[in-house]
């Protein structure tokens, strides 16, 4: 498999990559008004897309506050809430948005992950591949250079990169919420010491002494870890390549093993027994797999599956391409259809070769070894299942096709992870069960990470959709679940605190709320305009008024890491784009003066296009 640069694919060529069942039918954002009001052609007007309250406890409140701040500065601003799948299809696939308010995925807490998010080579890619349409030569140079660098030089490059981003604002980071969860104390222990955003966190829990017997208030009949969640998508779609169905990777991470996991110690072997890397500029990795392992259906797990996975992720048509009549490239040539979720990682790899049943050789693109190994964190897929999913798929209303690999619900899934699929009711529940042939069931399993995790502390893993965060907490309090699997809003904290049976779990989220700008739009294409918009937003007010204090303001996605510039440390207000107001109120005159400095003017209080 050779992962060479590919022709630019229009974002709509992967419309159905979200894996949803409803075709796009237009609507508010399908008829986006490009900043020009029909009654007053000169007025600057925007729409703010976001999620409804029953999907996200904060997004709509933040979006409404953002719109209020924009209106205070004279812009016409309306909030357009929509279902999560629809928002992602329109913002991440169709480019049909002005501004959106949503959470930035946790994966962008690493410098190398910023490469697909912001590099101009991904400006027409689907999903979280530069959805902003942002292009900046200096940013491209720093993104390329930091992949090849290490030590102090890489640190300097990453900090320079962030400074340029702060000046040009492809998106504005508003605030970082705390993830609030509730857990029962009776069945499992260790909740505070694990990361519940990762599948490894649930595997590291411990069974409470005597938990096999039902205790008062617990409706437990077997050795099952039960979660109450508010996101029904995960029960209907178990495709690890899906764009819009993966708010986190917990379920797919329990079903599919990667070669390694990124931890505080770097990338550590998991499905791989070990690896070695040689060379500094374009490293070569030699990976040794664990012997005698199988997929959930009993087929052997081999090096050929690893090589196939990288070939498929690079082009889900496996070299057949999307021909011109089925949505191929405009020059008539066949176009590959890569998997957008892992595009940044697969661009690190030039070639993967299965040397024998348990040995895989990776030839990486020009990159530092500690960057290259991040490619080992993609989920490995069984060739005997996924090779048949390369056909082009068209959906009603979609001009161009995608592939079955990106659209399939993947139910039932066949993985190699510590849990295997047991059953589901779409939109309501999904149940996984322990895979007894997994290497974690061997007490002598090799590898430092496997030893730290230990075995699988439950026989079954059950996820039940309950609706709102408050309902999820009540479900746990009533003994029908062991924990809330998705974070709940701060308004649920008093209910958790009143129950002696519940444990309040609060940890800083790696997924901040951002305002994303569509730099393809008039006005928003100007970084000075975006920077001025950023000065209309009071992050401290969001933390206090929306998060009830359960969060913190920040400037960029690498906050609280060694990569964060000292100049970004938040002390007395935003150090980069200071708020044009105080205590959550925009100073209208200061805001107007800022826009006038850009050449705009006002007509009866409304911001209008320069003459």
Automatic annotation (TrEMBL):
Region of interest: Disordered: 318-341, 394-415
The Solute-binding protein family domain, residue ranges: 267-603
Taxonomy, superkingdom: Archaea
SUPFAM superfamilies: Periplasmic binding protein-like II
Pfam families from the UniProt entry: SBP_bac_5
Keywords: Signal, Transport
Name the record gives this protein: ABC transporter substrate-binding protein
Species of provenance: Halogeometricum salsisoli
């Amino acid at each position: 498999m050779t992962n060479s640069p590919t022709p630019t694919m229009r974002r709509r060529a992967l419309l159905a990559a979200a894996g949803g069942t409803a075709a796009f039918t237009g609507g508010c954002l399908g008829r986006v008004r490009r900043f020009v009001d029909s009654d007053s052609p000169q007025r600057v007007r925007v729409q703010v897309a976001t999620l409804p309250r029953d999907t996200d406890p904060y997004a709509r409140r933040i979006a409404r506050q953002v719109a209020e701040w924009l209106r205070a500065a004279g812009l016409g601003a309306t909030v357009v809430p929509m279902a999560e799948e629809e928002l992602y299809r329109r913002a991440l696939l169709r480019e049909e948005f002005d501004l959106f308010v949503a959470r930035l995925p946790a994966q962008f807490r690493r410098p190398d992950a910023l490469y697909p998010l912001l590099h101009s080579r991904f400006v027409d890619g689907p999903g979280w591949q530069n959805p902003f349409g942002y292009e900046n030569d200096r940013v491209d140079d720093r993104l390329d250079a930091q992949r090849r660098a290490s030590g102090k030089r890489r640190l300097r490059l990453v900090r320079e990169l962030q400074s340029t981003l702060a000046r040009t604002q492809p998106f504005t980071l508003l605030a970082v919420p705390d993830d609030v969860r509730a857990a029962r104390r009776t069945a499992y222990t260790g909740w505070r010491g694990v990361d519940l955003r990762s599948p490894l966190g649930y595997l590291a829990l411990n069974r409470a002494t005597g938990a096999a017997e039902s205790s008062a208030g617990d409706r437990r009949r077997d050795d099952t870890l039960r979660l109450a969640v508010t996101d029904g998508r995960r029960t209907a779609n178990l495709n690890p390549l899906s764009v819009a169905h993966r708010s986190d990777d917990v379920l797919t991470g329990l079903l599919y093993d990667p070669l390694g996991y990124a931890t505080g110690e770097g990338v550590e072997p998991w499905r791989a027994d070990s690896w070695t890397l040689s060379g500094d500029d374009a490293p070569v990795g030699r990976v040794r797999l664990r012997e005698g392992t199988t997929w959930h259906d009993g087929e052997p797990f081999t090096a050929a599956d690893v090589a196939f996975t990288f070939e498929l992720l690079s082009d889900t048509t496996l070299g057949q391409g999307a021909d011109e009549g089925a949505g191929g490239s405009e020059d008539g040539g066949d176009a590959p259809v890569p998997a957008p979720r892992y595009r940044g990682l697969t661009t690190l790899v030039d070639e993967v070769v299965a040397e024998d049943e348990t040995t895989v050789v990776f030839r990486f693109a020009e990159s530092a070894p500690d960057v290259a190994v991040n490619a080992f964190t993609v989920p490995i897929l069984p060739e005997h299942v996924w090779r048949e999913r390369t056909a082009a798929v068209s959906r009603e209303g979609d001009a161009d096709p995608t592939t079955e690999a990106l659209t399939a619900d993947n139910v039932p899934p066949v993985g190699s992870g510590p849990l295997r699929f047991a059953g589901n009711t779409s939109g309501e529940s999904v149940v996984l069960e322990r895979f007894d042939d997994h290497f974690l069931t061997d007490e002598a399993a090799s590898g430092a990470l496997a030893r730290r995790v230990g075995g699988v502390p439950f026989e079954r893993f059950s996820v039940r959709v309950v609706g709102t965060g408050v309902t999820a907490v009540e479900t746990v309090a009533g003994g029908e679940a062991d924990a809330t699997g998705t974070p709940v809003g701060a308004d649920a904290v008093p209910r958790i605190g009143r129950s002696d049976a519940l444990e309040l779990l609060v940890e800083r989220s790696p997924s901040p709320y951002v305002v994303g700008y569509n730099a393809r739009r008039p006005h928003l294409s100007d970084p000075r305009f975006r920077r001025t918009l950023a000065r209309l937003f009071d992050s401290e007010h969001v933390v206090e008024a929306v998060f009830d204090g359960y969060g913190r303001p920040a400037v960029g996605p690498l906050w609280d890491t060694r990569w964060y510039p000292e100049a970004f440390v938040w002390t007395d207000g935003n150090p980069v784009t200071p708020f044009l107001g105080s205590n959550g109120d925009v100073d209208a005159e200061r805001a107007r003066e800022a826009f006038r400095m850009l050449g705009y003017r006002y007509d009866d209080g409304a911001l209008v296009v320069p003459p």
